[in-house]
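quick one, two chains, predict together pls
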Amino acid sequence: MKLLVATTNPGKLKEIKRILEPIGLEVVEPTENIEVEETGTTFLENAYLKANAYYDKFKLPTLADDSGLVVDALGGYPGVYSSRFHEIEFGGKEPIIGSRDETNIRKLLRLMKGREDRSARFVAFVVLYFNGKGFFAEGECKGTITESPRGQGGFGYDPIFKPEGFKKTMAELSPAEKDAVSHRGKALRNMSELLSKCKL
Amino acid sequence: MKLLVATTNPGKLKEIKRILEPIGLEVVEPTENIEVEETGTTFLENAYLKANAYYDKFKLPTLADDSGLVVDALGGYPGVYSSRFHEIEFGGKEPIIGSRDETNIRKLLRLMKGREDRSARFVAFVVLYFNGKGFFAEGECKGTITESPRGQGGFGYDPIFKPEGFKKTMAELSPAEKDAVSHRGKALRNMSELLSKCKL
């Protein structure tokens, strides 16, 4: 089956191909990006909205993901606002200095300053949508928020997230190590397991 | 496969059995009801929350649905608030006289009084969840809001909803006619089509 991926992010695309092509799926990229308003209050809903919008335009079964960091001491924030955390009201807006990722991290560390409970988890939902129906799969990676950023790999909050059982941050792990523990890796393997049982 | 249904509503249960048992699924009822807070802002999310909660408790693949009436002239309300429309702030709370259904209908007709655009649709999402993954299917039934209630069948807003192509309200249709056009009937058939292609 041909599968459209609702992303033009080369890193995500590579990860998705690596996990889904071995079960016989042909993963294709969209010829153009669509701006999808992520109005959902959950990862599942936002992944669904993205998959739905791309399916409507390209008429191909579409895979989309949404993911983020859920911090217990912040009542679940940044959550679905992970990628634009610096610009939302909660915790005060953060002036952009450096990249967006750096600004988001600075805001998160400011809000976590002096807190004892540093538990957090990365959560990912993957949705495959076509013609009024589809599949979904979730993945989670538990860990803690460090006091300061470490490591050059990955993206987003990886430099301040230490997965359970590791002494390194997500940004200090090798790509293979990250795939094995990451929320998106788990969600994609969950999806792959489900799809391998279906003849579409 | 054994399938738990996250409802103790006998009408829904019968409908679900009628559509899913022919494809070889064994549909079972929960031994007790779980109170699930429907905090989602969409039907998909609420169906997911219900399926997830029942799965966590009973450890069986669980099917849940969420549905409601979306009225264009009311900006999509009552939507996910359909069953408790009378008690929400939007449009003013409605004093309970008669049943909850009757009170909801009275509020809706009050808000629709004198409006020309009476277009609306019933929307249903069905989710089948197990162990971090699952299936979903949607169904829609387009129609219009009548000026006053008619018919004794069905439940909810059925007496004031006239499906496209019909002169009767949903509450005046026979059960078989309703199944054929209803949002839940369509969502369940979509789900059944998907499941019939999978070996779980």
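The interface with chain A takes residues 40-42, 44-45, 48, 132-139, 186, 190-191, 193-194, 197-200 of chain B (CB under 8 Å).
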